Amino acid sequence: MAQVISLAAEPRSGTGKGPARQTRREKKVPAVIYGHGRPTQPLTVDALALEKALTGVEPASTVIELAVDGKKTKVLIREIQRHAIRPDIIHVDFYEIHADEKIRLKIPVHLVGTPDGVRNAGGVLDQVMREVEIEVLPEHIPDRVELDVTPLAIGHSRHVRDLQIPNVTILSGADLTIATVVPPRAEEVAAPTPEATTEVAEPELIRKPREEEGEVGAEGEAPEGTKAPEGKAPPAKAPAEPKPKEKKG
User: Fold this and answer.
1) Which of 19, 69, 104, 249 has the fewest CB atoms within 10 Å around its CB?
2) Could you give the CA distance from residue 130 to residue 147 in angstroms, rounded to a whole number?
3) What distance in Å separates the CA atoms of residue 20 and residue 44, rounded to the nearest whole number?
4) How far is Cα 114 from Cα 120, in angstroms, rounded to an integer?
């Protein structure tokens, strides 16, 4: 059976963004109540009292006895809106319920135990569904449903049909998987870091033998187009022999 908590609310006259901001500046939360053909009524709830009331409970399956102008009405929370950045509640919808009327709601599924495939084979437990939809009288609303997964081996699953909830009609499909044990995930091999890679040796520079770079001529002269070794002058050429003088008759 779900918990029943008490909360006070006050009628709210202004609607729209401006009055809602003013309500929040006063440390209150804008709210509405509707259901059973009653017109939607704007309310305000003390922000601190609301946070305290919802601490440690499942809001969607918790019955609230809401007092408005001294009149108490049992309600469920249909929607909670929170700030985009902060965890503050910025709006809440209450839905009136009657003791003799069945209602539809979603309750959380909590897994119990450590599966055999996890303990003995290194498998991983994967919870596919975290809540189921039910139809129930307000007095029989469970705050949650527990499912034992201890016998599960690798490759085995638990389904909606395995849930046992007294005084409740389960509306979610019976064949839907709630939890399964999958094989252990293969460890990913880390890519080698640039420092760990082996550097490729640069190819050796093959040079011609010095004698091939410029062969010395037979007469000790460097071949045409080549320079003499640094610090050495090229060998001098032999002087030409003088031509013989002709004798005059």
Assistant:
1) 249
2) 11
3) 9
4) 10
Q: Which domains does the chain have, with CATH numbers?
A: 4-97 (2.40.240.10), 104-182 (2.170.120.20)
Give me the pLDDT at residue 200, please: 53
Of 125, 76, 121, the C-alpha closest to 102 is 76
Q: How far apart are CA 62 and CA 5, in angstroms?
A: 8
Q: Where are the alpha helices (DSSP H) in 133-237?
A: 210-213
Short-list 198, 230, 200, 202, CA closest to 214: 230
Alpha helices in 55-108 (DSSP H): none
Distance CA 80, CA 71 (A): 23
Running DSSP on this structure, what letter comes out for residue 230? T
Residue 30, beta-bridge partner list: 44
Two structure tokens written together for 134: 């039910």
Give the span between the Cα atoms of 180 and 168, in whole angstroms.
24
Give the residue among 56, 34, 37, 53 at the shortest CA–CA distance from 45.
53
Q: Alpha-carbon distance 110 to 179, whole Å? A: 10
Sheet of strand 169-170, all strands in order from the earlier edge strand to the far edge: 145-148, 103-112, 131-136, 169-170
Token pair 């006070």 is at which residue? 8
Mind listing the pLDDT tens digit for each residue in 54-99?
Answer: 888 888 888 999 999 889 999 999 999 998 898 889 999 999 999 8
Determine the Cα–Cα distance for residues 198 and 8; give it in Å rounded to an integer. Answer: 72
Assess contact for 117 and 181: CB atoms under 8 A: yes
The per-residue pLDDT for 26 is 87
The model's pTM is 0.66
